[in-house]
Amino acid sequence: MINSHQDWHPAEIICALRKRGTTLAALSRESGLSSSTLANTLSRPWPKGEWIIATRLEMDPAEIWPSRYFDDYGNFIERKVRQPVADCQSVDEYQPADE
Asked: Which residue range or ranges hold the Ner winged helix-turn-helix DNA-binding domain (predicted)?
């Protein structure tokens, strides 16, 4: 079975947010981001932004952006969360392997 669902048009997302009494810029600021940061989610994948928008719309991000969550056959695409920077080894702690 081939996935025929299309992503929402960016104007539909903006309209849905306005119907909820907010704007993309306001939601971005409420989330602790710069006012234009969430706009990136409309044109390219960004899981954190997708969840912020979808949560405000009381939906799952996969309903808004099915192409980002399902392959051409309708199979779920596992999206991994990146490791927080705090858990990464700092440059000061880095020790190269013995040669």
From this structure: 7-80
